[in-house]
Amino acid sequence: MLYSKKSDKSLDIELFKAPSKEYGAAPFWAWNCELKKETLEKQIEYMKEMGFGGYYMHTRVGMATPYLSDEFMELVSACIEKGKQIGMDSYLYDEDRWPSGSAGGFTAKADPENRQKFLCFTYTPYDDGTLITDADKAKSKAPNNEYTLLACFDVELDAQSKLVSYKRIALSEDAAAGHEKWFAYMEYAGYTDVMRKESIDTFINITHEQYKKWFGGEFGGSVPTIFTDEPQMKAKNPLAHAYDKKAPAILPYTNDLDETFKEKYGVSLLDNLPVLIWENASGVPSPLRYHYHNHTTERFAEAFCDNIGKWCEDNKIIFTGHMMHEESLYSQTMSIGEAMRHYRGFGLPGIDMLCDKRELNTAKQAQSTAHQYGKEGVMSELYGVTNWDFDFRGHKLQGDWQAALGVTHRVPHLYWVSMGGEAKRDYPAAIGHQSPWYKEYKHIEDHFARVNTVMTRGTPCVDVAVIHPIESYWLSFGPADQTGEHRSDLGNRHEQLTEWLLLGLQDFDFISESLLPEQYRETETGFAIGEMTYKTVIVPYLDTIRKTTLDALKKFRKAGGEVIFMGEAPSFVDAIPSDEAKDFAKECICISWSKSALINALEKYRFIKISKNDGYPLENVIYQLRNDGDKKHIFISHLYKEDYDCSPMIGTSIELTGEWKVQEYCTMTGEKRKLKVFYKNGKTIFPWVSKLCDSLLLELTPGKDTEEGGYVFFETRFSSAEYPVHKASYTLEEPNVLLLDRAEFSVNGGKWHAPLDVLKADKYIRSSLGEDVQIRRGVQPWQMPLNKDPKDVVDLRFTFESEIEYEGAELALEYPDYLTLKFNGEDVPVKVVGTYVDDAICRIPLPKIRKGENEILVTLRFGNVNSIESCYLLGNFGVEVRGYYPVITELPDVLYFKDIVDQKLAFYGGNVRYSFKINGGGQKTIEVGKYRGAVIKVLVDGEEKGYVDFPPHRLYLGELSEGEHTVDLILYGNRMNTFGQLHKTDEFLKWTGPDSWRTGDRFWTDEYMLVRTGILTAPRILTK
Fold this sequence. Notes:
By secondary structure, this protein is α+β, with helices and mostly antiparallel strands. The chain is built from 23 helices and 60 strands.
């Protein structure tokens, strides 16, 4: 059990104020270099300082310590002991990188049959010397992988490329005249066969048993969970065009799939493969297509999640993690079949939320399964692929809406052990000490830990259930040109329905038809699925419904339950044409596919209503409601990101069904306060001011509040507002920086090449030397011999202009043990005097910078032990970027309230302290309308007052005495303009992974695409 305190009779307010470790987040801690005990122990202390409750020891690209070796395990042991010493949990990760199942390659090494298999259905046979007919030989090609021929088919298609007939034929036979001959091969891939239990048993034996051997005594204590990451079948790839003979169809497969399929359905899968590939000319899809998707999903779920989950349960460690591609009907069908079925095996089901997306169905699927199986909560790997400039506003809003959808265990992505080499491009931002705001992150973490102390208590309160439509999608998984439009319609409606319900403040759970038979209970109180009982069930625009589902709904309806058919009733039952569902729909409520029809039909089940002062509903909030004895807890969050700078404060009225005494848990402060409410027609009503990034956590106690007083939410009115300053003195908390990211280069004394981006130069040089150019996709350092005495030599010539002479500059760079330096022709001792941002980036003193052109010559002994990376010139000077050309200048005397990029701090990524004077007299509030940075801390006369963090970006300063006061605004920066993708032209690129530093063609520019940073508008002082 992760949250043992949830069983306490009531919530201890001291626990809410200072939550214990299990309620805190545990970031992915990227083990991505040659690991050192001292470094790991130091970083655990940093994570404690940030407010985290633990850490996932997660091997990633660059890991040089042999995976699962004694050395590796001793480091894990040291981290567990360090965590215990300072009150943090140590969480396990089950793979070297991802997806889980390979055990760093050891699974396949144990038995080649453990490798992933897939079916390639192709018109083009493989020329391996076994082809017999001339026609086959004429259209053949060389094979790409190891393979086995499974079957050949004579296929007849009509003029629309739909399937008329097919039969299995021998390799020696030709297709009939006017027909086509197609081939089915089973091929092997490098990953693991997740449909084969023996393969996953091997994975468990290598990984989980090893951890048990070393740390089994800590399982369920200081080592609470083990994380599995993105297990997946071979991605299904239907034909793009039904008539296309060039590209094959790809489907997951395993050795005995035909055998187990025949046992389950009484028919050979191999004999009938064409019905998986093409649409039938009759217009009626074959049930075998549906059965194939169902069977492969079940094989996968049983072999992987059920199998590992049982091991974890037996060994008292919680199985958590997430599947691949959970988000949509298409992506689930493609990679995992159905997400919810896999979650049954998890102790703590999980999701992955990348790019700050709003994947409501991803969260809802996991939350629904957790509800129905009585799981403690939901895990989320969040903040991944958000980049360096994702600020505290984004962190809070993304975390809040997920908390409202059941997430209790947050796994922030990503805390790097090292930024060396490719690691610095491993899906930033770095949520760790490399980010200049890390010491302030407890401000965010404490909020979420406090939410968790409340929202892990009790049981979920949900009245509405929705039949999940994934199985209808399977039925139409044919050629994209013939089925894509209908599949898109199913997917769009799936997302639309979820959004209508959640933003309409009607919470719900999905029901998985595959899980229903084991979960359904006949009761007289509702539609009982596992631990949940629902008052109404929605059947949403399905093509097919299971007979078991239909029978359960009929019993529910007969007992007086409410079933709502929304849109067309299903035309198929168990994937076979049938009127049974349509006939049953006539006995139920039928509504059109519209938001208003849906919300009106569910109005009787409404618990909460939030109306703007103009009477219209507030439409950007969602909630979660839980029963806790006779009390209820409700958490309300905003959902969609709007313009942080100009988002309005909206006066609203919250109306709760029933009469309740209401107290607010103030999650940003740890305090608890009574709210003033009034009662009308059996409702509890109180005002609330909606502000983007705000959330609201309430305790509801039954009965009327007869005591006077209570807090009232209101929008503060001010008697005066002024802009006291339009510029400020400033202090930089670290040296300014000139980025050196392109150089002329020469290899082994050869010709000099024109200036080139360092990553492009690295690729060019490796290619010319015959080395692997795909560093991040290549073999891990621990798996290959690293040549620590490379013989190849690369000379890199960096040049820059300076308008001033400057004494005291330092050069920050990587791999000091492999290089020599010259500055303006003078030899420079490679004497490391410290680090810059990360221990991998070392600082070396330079001679005086001269006015005019300066040259740095780096001579690097180059090989697989290092890479060509940017250098960073550090000093108390200014840096301007004039398009292509960065230039050193004097620092500015003052800073104006605008982008610091344009104020000679072009590449600066540290913190900036703005200082100015204001006049006192009265109650003061400071407002910073527009800023770009992580967060702003405010000090008055040296005393910390708090943060300007969330819209409307105001902070109450208190009563200030008459006279002059000094205000300091510390803008916590980010490393975007130092380490980000500064040459991509697509400003809206969402997938900011390693390749986004390597764009090309029109998506690349040699000029610098810098992002705005700083306090962009003058602060206002508001007087009450």
